Amino acid sequence: MSRRLVAGVDSSTQSCKVVVHDAATGELVREGRAPHPDGTQVSAQAWWDAYRTATDGGLLDGVEAVAVGGQQHGMVTLGDDDELVRDALLWNDTRSAGDARDLVDELGGPQAWVDRVGAVPVASFTVSKLRWLARHEPDNAARTATVVLPHDWLTGRILKDGNGFQRWVTDRGDASGTGYWSAATGHYDRDIVRLAFGRDLHLPEVLGPAEPAGRTADGMLVAAGTGDNMGAALGLGLRRGDVVLSLGTSGTVFADDDAATGDAQGYVAGFASASGGRLPLACTLNAARVLTAGAALLGTDLPGLDELALQAEPGAGGLTLLPYLDGERTPNLPDATGTLSGLTRGNATPQNLARAHVEGMLCNLQFSVGALQAQGIPVERVLLIGGASASRAVRELTPQIFDVPVVVPQPGEYVGRGAARQAAWALTGELPDWPRADETQLPAPSDPRAGARIREQYAARAQHP
Ligand SMILES: Nc1ncnc2c1ncn2[C@@H]1O[C@H](COP(=O)(O)OP(=O)(O)O)[C@@H](O)[C@H]1O
Ligand SMILES: O=C(CO)[C@@H](O)[C@H](O)COP(=O)(O)O
């Protein structure tokens, strides 16, 4: 019997990656990729162009079902005829920070938001972007009939191309990042939409985990899709006690846990997973690109940065980088910039500067793991994924700074794999039991006390609102 093929798309901040898997075994058959434009506002059309380039040359030949995992939270505004009203504002665009603060106050404070939608909005959330649009671009706001998320738009675009589009849809996972859908009730909170935007909007229908979005004219099933972090959770097949540390454009830490978290401090968002449960998650704006910036500062490349960082002592001779290069979301410091502190004539070396970039980026995320723990999420081991998980320095320093066993799943596109697994679920009606990826456990640090010293040095200088 010939095998059945499914595809998963990771339409994330920097690129579009498409993987084709065997629906029954999960074996990777082939893959394609294409870059996305830089910037924190982007025409959604660029995601379609990248998807077409990534799938060019017959990548989807014989594929029976596809699903899209996409960067969360972005606001895609559509007019009456579904035309794009303006460029999408992405999750890492901080112009709506003041709008988020206003909305928090107007609803009655952080706890009111946790009670209504499971999370306290920051600039990243779609709800804050809605308020920004209503306040700053009234003409575009007036033209906006429908608001969808990046993965919803690409899902609809695939169906439109194949003449199978019926309606805009999303899934629980991505809907939970809007700030106007509650994982607890399973419904949109229309009063919050009206509070943010001044009137109601047409919003995508929220599908269940295995519910298809439609079929293209040539018969390819299109599944609901999800947010990229929810896709990664499905692709990794997480167990209780597993916490993912994803180092892409964003840094995220999350767990697949049924517990309904409620963090009124706003560090952990109570998102939904793609499989019907919950996905408590904390996200930083600064991760892999802190290393790129450090390499540029030192006039080297990423392997060069690793080499230098690994020549320095833990603590970088007292040098600390607060890595808020793009502002920050966790902690919520949207207007912050990076700060290098503790610089002396004695520690001013390229090696210490390189190490401070890696330590600062990781310490910032280690704080988020603490926030997950404070919500009662067990942290027995950390699974390191995302582009910067390839960094030698990251691999050596993560076990030290996080002080828990750290494993690296074999290199792969886990968001795409999770989306493909969802596509197989929609196709066959059953979530396939694909084997977990082989894992490499990273060596424990040779000096077990060094991690605590690095964390203390960082914490003494970090600013938390
Ligand atoms: N060896 C490496 N060391 C450090 N960073 C790396 C390495 N390889 C890739 N990256 C970084 O990973 C990032 C892309 O990761 P990815 O998870 O695909 O991001 P996203 O999903 O946000 O688009 C880029 O910023 C790239 O510089
Ligand atoms: O905003 C979040 C999570 O809440 C980000 O994780 C985005 O979903 C973008 O992800 P990457 O492009 O960095 O994978």
UniProtKB/TrEMBL annotation:
Molecular function per GO: ATP binding; D-xylulokinase activity
Disordered as annotated region, ranges: 433-465
Alphabetized Pfam families for the sequence: FGGY_C (PF02782), FGGY_N (PF00370)
Site-annotated residues for Important for activity: D10
Keyword set, alphabetical order: ATP-binding, Carbohydrate metabolism, Kinase, Nucleotide-binding, Transferase, Xylose metabolism
Residues covered by the Carbohydrate kinase FGGY C-terminal domain: 244-427
Catalytic residues as annotated in Swiss-Prot or TrEMBL: D228
InterPro entries given in the database record: ATPase_NBD, Carb_kinase_FGGY, Carb_kinase_FGGY_CS, FGGY_C, FGGY_Carb_Kinase, FGGY_N, Xylulokinase
Domain Carbohydrate kinase FGGY N-terminal: 6-226
Chemical reaction(s) catalysed: D-xylulose + ATP = D-xylulose 5-phosphate + ADP + H(+)
E.C. code: 2.7.1.17
Top enzyme class: transferase
PROSITE patterns hit by this protein: FGGY_KINASES_1
Sites where the protein binds substrate: Q72, H73
A GO biological process held by the record: D-xylose metabolic process
Task of the protein: Catalyzes the phosphorylation of D-xylulose to D-xylulose 5-phosphate.
Family: Belongs to the FGGY kinase family.
Protein name: Xylulose kinase
Organism: Barrientosiimonas humi
